[in-house]
Amino acid sequence: MLKLSKKADYGLMALQYIASVQYGDVARARIVNTKEIAEEYHIPLELLAKVLQTLAKQGIVESQNGPKGGYLLARHAKHITIAQVLEAIEGPLGIADCYHDKDSSACLQREHCNIRTPLLKVQSSIYQLLNSMTVEDMMGGTPLITVQSITTAEGVAR
Amino acid sequence: MLKLSKKADYGLMALQYIASVQYGDVARARIVNTKEIAEEYHIPLELLAKVLQTLAKQGIVESQNGPKGGYLLARHAKHITIAQVLEAIEGPLGIADCYHDKDSSACLQREHCNIRTPLLKVQSSIYQLLNSMTVEDMMGGTPLITVQSITTAEGVAR
DNA sequence: CTGATCGCCGATCAAAAAGGTCGCACTCAC
DNA sequence: GTGAGTGCGACCTTTTTGATCGGCGATCAG
Question: Which of B126, B127, B134, B147 has its CA 20 to 30 A from that of B8?
Answer without folding.
Answer: B147
